[in-house]
Write a structure and sequence with these properties.
The structure is a homotetramer. With about 350 residues, chain A is an alpha/beta fold. Helices cover about 15% and strands about 30% of the residues of chain A. Chains in contact: A-B, A-C, A-D, B-C, B-D, C-D. Chains A, B, C, D: Belongs to the extradiol ring-cleavage dioxygenase family.
């Protein structure tokens, strides 16, 4: 039974957008090869312990920090807030929630100023900051534009056991739900939540957590994503392509999931839609709709449901992973106990089953 | 043990290209919906028994004939030859081979003149013709250009039990091999063979045959293929998307396999390469190379290996299907008895297995 | 000398985005042919006097109203505000400015509720509304997706004689400047201003005004814009392609300008960048930079500088057009009295002039 | 009055395709920067006097040779023939025509074996070879694939005063005409001629000659060409973009013309159509059709008509340039003495002129 996170009496910080993720990697050189040589992220700064990377159209110092460490995990999901005062607001907000917080006037990473990090009610390390070093926005540096260029950080995705609890907490924090996946029993399997005017800044995926499901970067067009696959084939690392490319049902984006050398999952994503109106229609998908996760009905591989990255507390230790108690999306949709349909009415169409051929593992 | 088809003493007909396929469909209206409404092929002519379809850039009467009949099957794989005299050459060639042939001065279908159909040594109904009605080439009719426009017939693909036998026969007929799939024991699993300057006009896929594996149409760009998937999702017929989209290892083309209402397989295909030089390098792929069929290592669904369309003899009766005696590609690459690798040396790379995650069914 | 619009004491309405434009057309059937048959906008509703059109991803009733009338002109630039109360705020704001306003609880067009229209200080007919009929969002209706599909209304562009005056007024109204074009004498030639998180919801182009320069729709990818050109070629109306396609310097978007049957200019636009951060860097372009309007240095045709649509007052009469007194961008950049450079330092590079070949008309 | 080149009694050599061009450049380092750093051609081999370049999908040693020399010019238009014996055939053919020929068993360039170079009847340095060094075909080297990747040499384009004379000579040599531009007086302005199954291996453009109009490389998709423009903008060399990008009327290809540091013109080209059938329909365009050179009616810049590269004789001296006596395409289509139409019947359509706005220079 869901025990909701209380709603603080102080106002929530005014969040602008997801801004960067700090991940711990076990071999900095191999991770650099993946994120810089394969994916083409741009190095703002680096030393022997950390690499600060940004996407082409970014003007803040970084969207991704790779930090060397003993255990692959996520150290921070960092959001930019609207003004310096909103960092104070964030600190007060989480203090009232009884969460552990840590404020650093000089920031937790290079290029970022006054920040607060918290262990949030779901167990995730969230950061809020406003002050940041501006760097060259490479938008028109087409001399640097690779065939698979990543142009923006798009969103985070978090695994948490109790999606309604997480959703209510994030709604209090000012996020709005664009889409979700439910079943007719009222179970919520996932929810997509945004501050900026896209489908999400973060999403909650029901599962054992707190864990980081993926971090997503956007490309301009679909062919850029195909090139990333083609390049990974050429480099003979196609076994790091986990799922896709495909078209999402949820979000309508064209997508690809790949795995970095530590198994951290990265999504490449393009062309979702505008969500900036206050009454932007929320879309609820039936968990049994075979096109919800892939509009073409292509199967979701099991690892995509089960694998995710640990997240760290403010001391740098992994948070314990709590099991999801509700039904699992994988269990209810594939295999002996689950089912999916292509047509809601179950109409046979062509005297065939209504199941995607080959979709059942 | 392969018993080769003898090489005739008369010259082989000079084949220009694969030109059209005639397929028998059991419900003409439903097939029309698929090929015209979904795929957007252009109707040259139609009556209650047959529909004549062409791709955007075609100037001959048709690339596909849908003919109403009791059993879904293929009635003809039709090739265009270089001159009227080459139809005579084809007839003489197959007569010497002892094959049944039928010559019709007025053609077997509307829009085509003097033709010969044969039951070829592999059991396939091949047609050879030169005379044809020219129709409007719609190349610049961008007012008719759909988002998933099919612009050319690209190739046929035939299932035959004994690939080396078929290959030698087609080489005698003037085809040249661009690529093939083999193993270290010398077994050939498939071969791609061309007359025009692309990777193939037809391919041989090892399996129970004679059967038709697929007929392929080309688009201009990759996004056109993605649109076809998206549209099939919108029409809630994503269960007719059998495999892909993906990048082929063999041919390097971007591809998609879909199924028509009778289960006839259609490939949508774009961007293979020029093969017109006499010494065009032949590429041999190892059957265990996990990127041979899909450059990104995405798994081939079992139905793609096992399902195919019957072919008809000249009386319109289905040819009996003969079992392949050699090893099956599916068996040697997936499941308990097979294996595939991503890196030839089996290097673990990342302490991972070298197998595509999720690729094993 | 600029006489600035006073800043009201009441708060500005909280504007969400540009939402629709109402244009008067002289031949409704011919305009329908252009916007529906050629451009593929979707008809929400229509009668003998007006057609209500929306783009694929829109969920409000319309983005464009074509209204039959005697003089081709623009009847409204309509913005959506954040709540019903903001319509009151808008009314109060313009009343304090001494502008003529008209409030209609049932809206000025079908599908829109409580709205206020004003004759703004620059002479433009602005509308503010919140209430709106939701209609089917066609985002995933790929069965309706044309090769040149327009997916969103992107922005308006207004011609006004005094850009700094207009800019200060729009900044008071809550718009933020993303980019502008100036010269070293301090003359401003144009400014781009946004509420939503793109480069603009509207732009001010220096010239004789008030007039409407263009209304812009977005596509997903660049090839969609090319298809619109190709289709206009196929329909033999390439003389309605006024400028482009090209890459803008300002905004970095890929663009095309076309003319409807009345000469109203429509831009097709894709892939500008995120501007949602409070400190989003403003970019100032030198008016003599030959890549500011077209990143490839392709020339701007004179008509693009000189032609624009009349705008109507609240009685439906055309607003008088006032001449720009400051220097004209066309005059200072082309012809005998103007100049442009490709490289700022005027470096000859290749012993050539630094001028775009063929760029001088 | 055309004095035709006699038809030799010996058979014409069997030409496979245009294979490479050798151009003389005045500053090898600057040319390398253009062809390698900007355009991304792949270096097969280089020394202080020459650079051998190839496109991604090429398997012969090179498609372009840059040779250092005092005068920018073209040293050879090289065709590959079907077998070693065809080099003999070429030599005999031109000897009978009375042309100067030079045979080199070890080739004229690195990587090419037995070859013959001739000063052809039109004054062009043609080469014919079969023997060639095979190099790595980079087709699937997506790790090397740039955003503007050039994948094939597509064609040559030659300026010659008398197009019908050149055309008849090339038809004798085995080329077939795919398209041409004429007027109602019977004047031919240009002709496109092919051996491989594309629109052309070479084209004849009417003008003062012999000169080289351009050499063309193909990309896979249209966005690759747009990227080349974007990159040239980023490098502030947009003044080397001479014309385009656009859609050709003739050939239907998407195109771009750029200029190398010596003013040699390079076309980037994609998506023409299959021409391999013996009765491939020839398309004749009216010189006054405003969409013949650009399907969107965008104007052809004068330099494109007037500028071209010198060609060398077998001693390395520039061939004298002979003036075209017939009408010039530029003169008959633009300016006071010329005219073009968008609609053949001259229908006003929209009460407008039928001329492309801004198209008249």
């Amino acid at each position: 039974m869901t025990s909701f996170v209380p709603t603080p009496t102080v106002p929530a910080p005014d969040i602008v957008r997801c801004a960067y993720m700090e991940i711990v990697v076990t071999d900095l050189a191999r991770s650099r090869e993946f994120y810089v040589d394969v994916l083409g992220l741009h190095v703002t700064e680096e030393d022997e312990n950390a690499i600060y990377l940004r996407s082409l159209e970014e003007f803040i110092h970084h969207n991704l920090v790779l930090r060397k460490g003993p255990i692959a995990a996520v150290a921070a999901f960092a959001y930019r807030v609207k003004s310096p005062a909103e960092v104070d607001a964030a600190e007060a907000y989480y203090k009232e929630l009884g969460c552990r917080t840590e404020r650093r006037k000089d920031g937790f990473t290079k290029g970022i100023g006054d920040s607060v990090r918290v262990e949030d009610p779901l167990g995730f390390p969230y950061e809020f900051f406003y002050e940041v070093e501006h760097v060259e926005r490479l938008t028109q540096r087409y001399d640097l534009y690779s065939a698979g260029e990543l142009v923006r950080l798009d969103h985070f995705n978090q695994v948490t056991p109790d999606v309604p609890r997480g959703r209510a907490y994030l709604e209090d924090l000012g996020f709005r739900v664009s889409e979700d996946i439910k079943d007719s029993d009222g179970v919520t399997y996932a929810a997509w939540m945004h501050r900026k005017q896209t489908v999400h800044d973060t999403a909650l995926t029901g599962g054992n957590g707190p864990r980081m499901h993926h971090v997503a970067f956007a490309t301009h067009e679909k062919h850029n994503i195909i090139q990333i696959c083609d390049k990974m084939g050429a480099l003979r690392i196609s076994d790091r392509i986990e799922r896709g490319p495909g078209r999402h049902g949820v979000s309508n984006a064209f997508y690809l999931y790949i795995l970095d050398p530590d198994g951290h999952r990265v999504e490449i994503y393009t062309q979702d839609y505008y969500t900036g109106d206050p009454d932007n229609p929320t879309i609820t998908w039936d968990v049994h709709d075979n096109q919800r996760r892939d509009w073409w009905g292509n199967p979701v591989v099991p690892s995509w449901y089960t694998e995710a990255s640990l997240v760290l507390d403010l001391d740098g230790n992994p948070q314990p992973v709590i099991e999801r108690e509700e039904k699992s999306e994988m269990a209810v949709t594939v295999g002996a106990d689950g089912f999916s349909y292509t047509r809601k009415d179950g109409s046979p169409e062509d005297d065939r089953t209504g199941f995607k051929l080959g979709a059942q593992l």
